[in-house]
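I am still getting used to backbone structure tokens and would like to learn alongside you. To get us started, please write out a protein record for me. Once you have written the record down, we can walk along the chain together.
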Amino acid sequence: MHDVHTFENRGRVPSVAVVSSAFATQAIYQAEALGMVEPERHVVLAEHPISDATDEEIALKADLLFEDLMGQLTSNLPASPARKIRMRSGTPSEACLAGA
């Protein structure tokens, strides 16, 4: 989240963090601590776990989040209420992982 904050504020470069779904609430908390407005716009969730995934599993996870990633990078719209709720839930739903 620190990198996203730096790119967005110092470099004015649209940025999004790809975060494992198990760490969604921590990413939102960190973004808020950094003073980021609407942190849900700066987080895209990948299905947990990531660290022990095979190359094929990583490619599949990347394919699943690509559309959400591009949407967050190219939109100036605020995060939807549904996205805010899902990003802050303890266990993200399939809709959250699909870019709700």
Strands lie at 17-20, 43-46. The radius of gyration is 13 Å. The helical segments are 2-9, 24-33, 55-74, 81-88, 94-97.
